[in-house]
Amino acid sequence: MKSSVADDTQEKFETARNECISETKVSRDLADGLKEGKFVEDAKLKEYIFCVNKKIGYQNENGDFDYDVVADDFQQRLAKAKSECLSEVKVDKTLVDGIKEGKFADDSALKEYIFCVNKKIGYQNENGDFQDDEIRKVLKDKYSEELLNRSITTCNKKKDTPQEDGKWQSAQNDTKFKEYMFCFNKKMGYQNEAGDFQKAELKSSLAINSNQENVNDIVEKCAVKKSTPQESAYQCMKCIDDNRPKN
Prior knowledge:
- The protein is mostly helical.
- 62% of the residues lie in helices and 0% in strands.
- It is built from 13 helices and no strands.
- This is PBP GOBP domain containing protein.
């Protein structure tokens, strides 16, 4: 049977792992611990990670990341994770499909599914801790460093359970999420207490495109006041994401 792209990627990764364990003489226990989000301050472990990243094309000899390769690999891992978690969690597929439309049902199996996916793609470990470096690596080519740092600091806060943590990514059509977006925008300086957009701050912080004229056009189109500050925040976020140039 013909192997999938995801299977080929996994095989390439496992080959790189085994070769780098041999080349760097790192403890296999330390290397295996990375799968569970366990990172030990160890020189050989860091050398091992760099070795793997070079072999799979994430970094060059100078340590520079190739974010196109990172993004392509992430999409393959994400597709594989979704498929596996659908089987493992036994969640209603209609609820999973609803996530694409911003519909998040308050369903324990759906939360378990999102947590399952997050673990498999490296966004969370078994304890529910967010892996900020992994998230930053995938999103670095789409958002400014300032926005990423602020977003990760604000959003990646542990809730009562690891499963509850995962839902912030998917609750785009939820009243509480809109309230959160307004809160976030105020802290970022994108909106004031009255809900008015601070367009200058948006334009300077959102690195949507290196073309400043394009940034201006998108902000002018998206930073439009709606019926409530919360709705304004949500619609602006959605509009920017919809209109941001896709590579």
